[in-house]
Amino acid sequence: MVKVVVCGAAGGIGQPLSLLLKYSDLITHLALYDIVNAIGVAADLSHINTASKVTGHVGKDMLPEALRGAHTVVIPAGVPRKPGMTRDDLFRVNAGIVRDLAEACAEHCPKAFILVISNPVNSTVPIVCEVFKKANVFNPRRIFGVTTLDVVRSSTFVHEIKPQFEPHLNRITVVGGHSGATIVPILSQIKNVSFTPEEIKTLTHRIQYGGDEVVKAKNGAGSATLSMAYAGARFTTSLLEASVRGKRGLVESAYVYLGSPGAERNLHSTGLEYFAQDVELGPEGVMNVLALSDLSAEEEALVKTAIGELKANISKGVKFVTSAPVSAKAKL
Ligand SMILES: NC(=O)c1ccc[n+]([C@@H]2O[C@H](COP(=O)([O-])OP(=O)(O)OC[C@H]3O[C@@H](n4cnc5c(N)ncnc54)[C@H](O)[C@@H]3O)[C@@H](O)[C@H]2O)c1
Ligand SMILES: O=C(O)C[C@H](O)C(=O)O
């Protein structure tokens, strides 16, 4: 049985992501959890004639049954940006949502793969890891910040100016984190395409701030949902192909804890505990963190800038869990 749980399943990302996952023949049970409307979304999806079972679960009381037996939990729960906001502005609301969901996962499905979409990813992934550490169930191979949308955007934007670059066939490595200057596309390593310095500058900026384009265009009605659902389904599918079917050689970028095996091969000893990099996926999740070499001077400088911002984002997430006052429940 392969049970995949979507937490935040009734939302802008959650609904199309669940639809795409309903197409997957790797999933036998799709459990949809939200604080509202998940029963209706599940009823709707359950009429689709693919083999997986769909169940809906609403509210905290139904969270344990949603999570029990999960192979993978995908988390797009939380509020999205409005124009003028940074992803870090979402921390105030989303940190608590992600922490509470992580606590439930640590209790009810401690061995599941956890895929974090909720922003700010640079901080929410450390939150999940710290919750799992506290509960003594932390396995760094199994927790991922989903940065696939940055990779998807990179391929699309490069194709727009270099039509010979096939966007669905070629993957571009994007490292760092998932917000503005922390997003570092490695355009110098794209094969058979050359860019002028001006093109590199424009493309890099567009990839780093691609999320803002959508926030602005939606004009207060949220951020990227459909492209994110596509990216989230792609990452989930790759992970399932590797972990369920045992397919080898599958590589995706993800924001991971660098205590993972192979992490010592991390690009430039950034000194950071978390960094988005290409990872090879396997039966246990992260098999290998792929090393990067031969960055251009411009990319080296971008990484340096990203490190400063990431340090602050990571420490904010870690402190949110480690410095929290002991709850009344825990004192009893
Ligand atoms: N990683 C990425 O690349 C990426 C891309 C796009 C959006 N995002 C982020 O994903 C998140 C969701 O975006 P959206 O557009 O789907 O927002 P949305 O408001 O449309 O949906 C969020 C859903 O989460 C639910 N929710 C809130 N609290 C919850 C809780 N405690 N438990 C379960 N569900 C809960 C809401 O009821 C809602 O259905 C945002 O934080 C956004 O910034 C990340
Ligand atoms: O831009 C956002 O806030 C949502 C998401 O992180 C994105 O990159 O589209």
From TrEMBL:
<protein>
    <recommendedName>
        <fullName>Malate dehydrogenase</fullName>
        <ecNumber>1.1.1.37</ecNumber>
    </recommendedName>
</protein>
<feature type="binding site">
    <location>
        <position position="81"/>
    </location>
    <ligand>
        <name>substrate</name>
    </ligand>
</feature>
<dbReference type="InterPro" id="IPR015955">
    <property type="entry name" value="Lactate_DH/Glyco_Ohase_4_C"/>
</dbReference>
<dbReference type="GO" id="GO:0006099">
    <property type="term" value="P:tricarboxylic acid cycle"/>
</dbReference>
<feature type="binding site">
    <location>
        <begin position="8"/>
        <end position="14"/>
    </location>
    <ligand>
        <name>NAD(+)</name>
    </ligand>
</feature>
<feature type="domain" description="Lactate/malate dehydrogenase N-terminal">
    <location>
        <begin position="2"/>
        <end position="145"/>
    </location>
</feature>
<dbReference type="Pfam" id="PF02866">
    <property type="entry name" value="Ldh_1_C"/>
</dbReference>
<dbReference type="GO" id="GO:0030060">
    <property type="term" value="F:L-malate dehydrogenase (NAD+) activity"/>
</dbReference>
<comment type="subunit">
    <text>Homodimer.</text>
</comment>
<feature type="binding site">
    <location>
        <begin position="117"/>
        <end position="119"/>
    </location>
    <ligand>
        <name>NAD(+)</name>
    </ligand>
</feature>
<dbReference type="InterPro" id="IPR022383">
    <property type="entry name" value="Lactate/malate_DH_C"/>
</dbReference>
<feature type="binding site">
    <location>
        <position position="228"/>
    </location>
    <ligand>
        <name>NAD(+)</name>
    </ligand>
</feature>
<dbReference type="GO" id="GO:0005737">
    <property type="term" value="C:cytoplasm"/>
</dbReference>
<feature type="binding site">
    <location>
        <position position="119"/>
    </location>
    <ligand>
        <name>substrate</name>
    </ligand>
</feature>
<dbReference type="InterPro" id="IPR001557">
    <property type="entry name" value="L-lactate/malate_DH"/>
</dbReference>
<keyword id="KW-0816">Tricarboxylic acid cycle</keyword>
<feature type="binding site">
    <location>
        <position position="34"/>
    </location>
    <ligand>
        <name>NAD(+)</name>
    </ligand>
</feature>
<comment type="similarity">
    <text>Belongs to the LDH/MDH superfamily. MDH type 1 family.</text>
</comment>
<feature type="binding site">
    <location>
        <position position="87"/>
    </location>
    <ligand>
        <name>substrate</name>
    </ligand>
</feature>
<feature type="binding site">
    <location>
        <position position="153"/>
    </location>
    <ligand>
        <name>substrate</name>
    </ligand>
</feature>
<dbReference type="InterPro" id="IPR001236">
    <property type="entry name" value="Lactate/malate_DH_N"/>
</dbReference>
<feature type="binding site">
    <location>
        <position position="94"/>
    </location>
    <ligand>
        <name>NAD(+)</name>
    </ligand>
</feature>
<dbReference type="InterPro" id="IPR010097">
    <property type="entry name" value="Malate_DH_type1"/>
</dbReference>
<keyword id="KW-0560">Oxidoreductase</keyword>
<keyword id="KW-0520">NAD</keyword>
<dbReference type="InterPro" id="IPR001252">
    <property type="entry name" value="Malate_DH_AS"/>
</dbReference>
<dbReference type="GO" id="GO:0006108">
    <property type="term" value="P:malate metabolic process"/>
</dbReference>
<feature type="domain" description="Lactate/malate dehydrogenase C-terminal">
    <location>
        <begin position="147"/>
        <end position="321"/>
    </location>
</feature>
<dbReference type="InterPro" id="IPR036291">
    <property type="entry name" value="NAD(P)-bd_dom_sf"/>
</dbReference>
<dbReference type="Pfam" id="PF00056">
    <property type="entry name" value="Ldh_1_N"/>
</dbReference>
<feature type="active site" description="Proton acceptor">
    <location>
        <position position="178"/>
    </location>
</feature>
